[in-house]
Amino acid sequence: MSETDRHYATIWEAIADRMPERTALRHGDLVHTWRQFDDRAARLAAAFAAHGVGHQESVGNFLYNGPTYFESFFAALKIRARPFNVNYRYRGSELRQILDNAEAKALVYSAALRDRVASVIDDSPDLRLLVEVGDDPVGAPIPGALHLEELLADTEPAPRVERSGADTYLNYTGGTTGLPKGVLVEIRRSMTTALWFRDQYLGRTLDGDPVDTAMALAEAGDSLSSIPASPIMHSVGFIFSSLPALLTGGTVTTLENHGFDAHELLATIERTSATVTAIVGDAFGLPIVRALDEGRPDGRPYDTSSLRVISSAGVTWSAPIKARLLDHMPQVALIDACGSTEGVNYGTRTTRRGDALSSANFVAAPGLKVLSPEGDELPAGEIGLLAGPTHGNGYHRNPVETASTYLRLDGVQYAIPGDLGRVEPDGTVTLIGRGITTINTGGEKVHPAEVEEVIKALPQIDDCLVLGVPDERLGQRVAALVVPTPGAVLETEAIRAAVRELVAGYKTPSRVLVIEQVPRAPNGKVDYPAAQALFADA
User: Fold this and answer.
1) CB 312 within 8 A of CB 322
2) C-beta neighbour count of 154 within 10 angstroms
3) How far apart are the first and last CA of the chain?
4) Per residue in 24-51, is it b (16+ CB within 10 Å) or e — as a string?
């Protein structure tokens, strides 16, 4: 199979044919083999097609973590339709907007989200099929909706077809800089990324046909067993954790709780002998560290000896949290990836116990550039917009944003999502943050990540968030939310004094608020409106 013909559905079908009884998906006590994974996806694919879902038409996944997410994704790809992710927090206008933008023809949704779907279907006339997953004792099913298990039982599997690696699926951004935008992800280039992460997790580069490689890994007992700790509706859990594991003919285990529970993750690692888990920086790393400190309910430590890799992306993964994780799990490699939903990988940093620790410095990805706002390439040491090769083809139905974000440089597709960074003299790249988070205080620019790194290194501080708060005279002032270590008592003036010794005076937070937890969304990203509200309330 040439690289241009590579397609997830075609490879997964071949894996299912060649090792049908191996476990593909696990959720609590529910286990689906590769044969079942393929069969269920084929039946769902036939149902999509029977309801008129055609080539590159969109199928939405409005689902909590679980096997159905992968089955629906696989099913859509089987008939060359275009699956897309829907944030399970969306309601009303948010849900209506994304279904409209995606031009959704089918929607697979968790029964617990039934009332949200019911509130928008009258405004979504293009929806031809609603598939409800699971059971919810509250309320009645939506008229016309089909229950997944009944639908699969009544539908014959779809025949296999030839596919093109140029097909796309939609990956919606988190909407942190406006309405979510649907990135058109080209499958063959997405596979190149997933196979690269596969090799990173295995610790070696594997060439050759992906199916033959998966067979060899299975025979050697080296297939990946992965647990996406974060929601698979976002890139980290899906692209960084799940797709690489499935490309080894391995297993993806999803957690049962809808919210992240670090004790559940650690118990599941122990129970399933997982080798890889994907988290979202300190938002997940800190609860994991605390759970490791506490141990099991009976006081015994968790057995995490099977774990080889923890990968992370999306938010800062600070050096202190990395150090504490490695103290508990010295055999683990920490792979910190820096990129964006637009399909760009800026760089990665692999850390093992004994290595120098870093919070925001990465080995630059091949082809990475730093550009001025005018599009000129900047020299080492200057802060600018990060631009990198991408597996995205642009935004669905958004030519204006596509034109401003995606471009071709030297014949290669690039994206400039708006992240700031600089290339260091040694060739590494330092992430500064998004331009929208930059604080302008009296004309001085402050990059929150720089101040956060200083604060997180202080004793008795577990987490923090630096942001700008309105100020009548300066426009904005620097402010910080800080989370103490368990049992610690923090003096806010002492924190300010310690920071002032390490950074310029204008970067020192003028306001410090001690809180129990930094407000974040399920994907680990900061909930800035909630953070601003904490200062307003204070």
Assistant:
1) no
2) 10
3) 61
4) bbbbeeeebbbebbbbbbbbbbbbbbee
Is the CB of residue 104 less than 8 Å from the CB of residue 80?
A: no
Report the largest interatomic distance among the alpha carbons of the chain, rounded to a whole angstrom: 69
List pLDDT tens digits, range 79-127. Answer: 999 999 999 989 898 999 999 999 999 999 999 999 999 999 999 999 9
Three-class secondary structure of residue 91 per DSSP:
coil
d(CA 229, CA 236) in angstroms, rounded, equals 9
pTM (predicted TM-score): 0.90
> Structure tokens of 22?
């191996």
- Tokens 């330092």 appear where? 430
Q: Output the CA–CA distances (angstroms, integers) from residue 240 to 298, 313, 351, 535, in the order listed.
A: 33, 8, 17, 35
Q: Which distant-in-sequence residues (6+ apart) come within 8 Å of 161 by Cβ? A: 78, 79, 80
Q: Do 72 and 79 touch, CB atoms closer than 8 A?
A: no
Question: In terms of Cα–Cα distance, which of 38, 2, 14 is closest to 166?
Answer: 2
CB 306 within 8 A of CB 340: no
The DSSP code sequence of 315-366 is S---HHHHHHHHHH-TTPEEEEEEEETTTEEEEEEEE-TTSPP-SSEEEEPT
For 374-418, the pLDDT digits (tens) are 999 999 999 999 999 999 999 999 999 999 999 999 899 999 999
Structure-token match 């129990």, residue found: 516
